[in-house]
């Protein structure tokens, strides 16, 4: 296992006003267990506010956890020394959703892609330039484009620049946080293909975060479904898509609009909205919207347990 | 054809910028019959939103302008309507729902007041009646305990609830046509399913026709009976949803369907069939067919001459020389 996440928690305090005795907390990630096998892709799905991006930031060590640990190649990333942390920063990289705001508009492409080499003191001068050119070719950009600024590129090309920067230091794990959501449909496919090519060529491990269920099915070996800070189900991609066990996974997949105009109307519509993560429901967090709820669900939190088909599910009923 | 509620003929909406003339809508023909839903799909800059704004006569003038064409709504040409005439139509006989409900609702007024305002603007009713109608409309769009929520401000509601309020407002005067521009794009999947279901049910209750604008083909499959695929200011394929989703003909439509992941990969070598090239910039469009530089079926004729919309089967038109 490249990454082993054990009971990791991240709470953000919220101001409750002048006379509040107890501060509230947004329980963005609340006891998550997950592993990511080396060379494979874990797809992480869930709706806005479920904590999927926070989990990505924890793995990058951009956030300090309030509990639990995350092991990368067997070592807890939160207990690393300064020099070990520097090395970790090279091995885990991120591709962001918005290629417009994640590239410095005042720097040329060669400087953006070459910056990781400069920061880590790994290459300079013509050696750095050669590496930048090689990376640009890998992601499908032309060498002469290195003298241009980000605004001179389209959205898809900018995402290629972001990917080249992420790959510069030969990372082992790449966290792709909604990497194609801001792109047009015809361009999305180009970037998805590029990410798949790069995984094959460099043996990358991906944590692929997206709300696009079709895309996650296409790229993932494993899929984890998050709801309000918790993993509710986690399984092999084909198992979870063919037979989702948790009622939330089932409803989520059923809500995904189909390209077949004749297949509508057999869906199970979830009632209500996603509750606030500040005061999440007691017991199973999904019980307020769950069509199968029983008394126990509002009282006792279900644990993630392994099922006969190999999936891990947190549900009292199923 | 006399039953068409909206019929657009040869609509051209251009923007006159310092860099040149941007042909945002470049000769669009379409029609919507009473009670039907037409989905207009395409990528950014294809002109789908500008078509909608042209119908509402909300094109930002004087930079943008309808330069040619007719927009026949219930027999009247909106392209030549005066501002006073349009004010009676907007929100009353044609209403619009936008992508972002937070920015289209006024944050300092109660949602009930905002719906009541729309009703009072167009109909002779007392404030009390209008308020009662607001509650009725909130109930209709499935907002729980509408009597209390009518007093809430937009920020007290979730994104899905706000979009329901927008739909309630849009339907409050029982419009003949509702234009929905990316109505579910900002919403989560389970909430999107609720809103699409709501749109489908309300259409039958209120009897409005719908022009749905989206980049998402699956959303079209869920709610529309007819679809127009737009590319660089043109409709490139037009017809019945069942036909086109089963058997798309224009190379661009075919490419769009292929670039959406629909099946899982059988092997690690499987890839999506992407459309090559970039989404076009309207200032540097190629001559001939606007899609020819990205098309896998391009022939010499495509580079010189733009094809007209050709009928490939009854009610199914394609703008491509493959069929001419």
Task: Provide a descriptive summary of the structure in words.
The complex is a heterodimer of chains A (about 325) and B (about 325). Chain A has helices spanning about 50-60, 80-90, 110-120, 125-140, 155-165, 185-200, 215-220, 235-240, 245-255, 295-300, and strands at about 5-15, 25-35, 40-45, 65-70, 75, 90-95, 175, 205-210, 220-225, 230-235, 305, 310-315. The radius of gyration of chain A is 21 Å and the shape is globular. Chain A starts with a strand and ends in a 5-residue tail after the last strand. Chain A contains ten helices and twelve strands. In chain A, the strands form two sheets. Chain A has an eight-stranded mixed β-sheet, sandwiched between helices. In chain A, strands 2-1-4-5 form a four-stranded antiparallel β-sheet. With about 325 residues, chain B is of the alpha/beta class. Chain B is about 35% helix and about 25% strand. Chain B contains twelve helices and twelve strands. In chain B, the strands form two sheets. An eight-stranded mixed β-sheet of chain B has the order 6-7-8-3-9-10-12-11, with helices on both faces. The longest helix of chain B has 18 residues, at about 190-205. The radius of gyration of chain B is 21 Å and the shape is globular. The chains are: A alpha/beta (about 325), B alpha/beta (about 325). At the A-B interface, α6, α7, α8 and α9 of A face α8, α9, α10 and α11 of B.
């Amino acid at each position: 296992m490249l990454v082993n996440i054990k009971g990791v928690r991240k709470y953000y305090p919220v101001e409750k006003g002048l006379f509040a005795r107890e501060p509230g907390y947004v329980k963005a990630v609340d006891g998550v267990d997950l592993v990511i096998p080396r060379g494979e892709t874990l797809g992480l799905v869930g709706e806005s506010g479920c904590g999927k991006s926070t989990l990505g930031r924890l793995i990058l060590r951009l956030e300090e956890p309030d509990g639990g640990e995350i092991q990368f190649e067997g070592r807890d990333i939160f207990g690393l020394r300064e020099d070990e942390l520097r090395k970790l920063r090279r091995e885990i990289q991120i591709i962001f959703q918005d290629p417009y705001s994640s590239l410095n508009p005042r720097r040329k492409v060669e400087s953006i892609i070459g910056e990781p080499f400069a920061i880590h003191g790994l290459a300079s001068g013509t050696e750095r330039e050669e590496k930048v050119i090689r990376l640009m070719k890998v992601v499908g950009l032309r060498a002469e484009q290195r003298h241009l600024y980000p605004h001179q590129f389209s959205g898809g090309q900018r995402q290629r620049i972001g990917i080249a920067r992420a790959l510069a230091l030969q990372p082992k794990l790449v966290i792709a946080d909604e990497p194609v959501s801001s792109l047009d449909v015809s361009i999305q496919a180009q970037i998805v293909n590029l990410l798949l090519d790069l995984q094959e060529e460099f043996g990358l491990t991906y944590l692929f975060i997206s709300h696009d269920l079709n895309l996650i099915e296409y790229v993932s070996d494993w899929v984890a479904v998050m709801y309000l800070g918790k993993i509710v189900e986690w399984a092999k991609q084909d198992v979870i898509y063919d037979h989702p066990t948790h009622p939330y996974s089932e409803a989520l997949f059923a809500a995904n609009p189909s390209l077949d105009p004749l297949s509508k109307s057999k869906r199970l519509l979830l009632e209500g909205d996603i509750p606030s993560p500040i005061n999440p429901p007691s017991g199973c967090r999904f019980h307020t919207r769950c069509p199968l709820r029983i008394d126990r669900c509002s009282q006792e939190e279900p644990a993630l347990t392994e099922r006969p088909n190999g999936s891990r599910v947190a549900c009292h009923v199923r | 054809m006399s039953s068409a509620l909206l019929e657009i003929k040869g609509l051209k909406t251009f923007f006159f910028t310092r860099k040149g003339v941007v042909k945002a809508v470049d000769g669009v023909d379409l029609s919507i019959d009473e009670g039907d839903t037409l989905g207009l799909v395409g990528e950014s800059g294809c002109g789908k939103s500008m078509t909608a704004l042209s119908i509402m006569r909300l094109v930002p003038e004087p930079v943008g302008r309808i330069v040619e064409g007719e927009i026949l709504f219930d027999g009247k040409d909106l392209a030549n309507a005066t501002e006073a005439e349009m004010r009676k139509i907007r929100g009353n006989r044609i209403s619009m729902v936008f992508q972002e409900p937070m920015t289209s609702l006024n944050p300092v007024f109660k949602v009930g007041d905002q719906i009541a305002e729309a009703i009072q603007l167009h109909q002779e009713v007392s404030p009390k009646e209008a308020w009662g109608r607001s509650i009725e409309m909130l109930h209709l769009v499935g907002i729980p305990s509408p009597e209390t929520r009518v007093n809430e401000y937009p920020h007290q509601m979730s994104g899905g609830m706000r979009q329901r309020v927008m739909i309630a407002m849009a339907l409050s005067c029982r419009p003949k046509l509702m234009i929905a521009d990316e109505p579910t794009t900002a919403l989560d999947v389970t909430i999107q399913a609720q809103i699409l279901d709501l749109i489908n049910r309300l259409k039958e209750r209120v009897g409005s026709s719908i022009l749905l604008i989206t980049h998402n083909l699956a959303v079209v499959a869920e709610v529309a009976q007819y679809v127009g695929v737009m590319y660089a200011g043109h409709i490139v394929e037009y017809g019945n949803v069942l036909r086109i989703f089963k058997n798309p003909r224009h190379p661009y439509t075919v490419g769009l369907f292929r670039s959406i992941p629909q099946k899982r990969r059988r092997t690690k070598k499987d890839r999506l069939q992407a459309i090559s090239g970039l989404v076009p910039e309207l200032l540097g469009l190629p001559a001939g067919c606007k899609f020819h530089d990205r098309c896998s079926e391009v022939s010499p004729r495509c580079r010189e001459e733009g094809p007209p919309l050709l009928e490939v089967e009854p009610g199914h038109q394609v703008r491509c020389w493959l069929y001419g």
